[in-house]
Amino acid sequence: MIQSKMNTKTKEVLLQDIQSLKADLDSHNANLPLAVLTLLSYTADEVNKYLDKNMTNYVTVNRTAYKILLALADRDGGMIQTELSSGLFRSRYTITRVIDALEKRGLVRRKADKIDRRAKKVLLTQKGIAVLKNSIDGRIEVGEVGIECLNHDEQKTLRTLLKKLRLHLVSLNKSKNKIKIE
Question: What is the value of pTM for the model shown?
Answer without folding.
Answer: 0.69
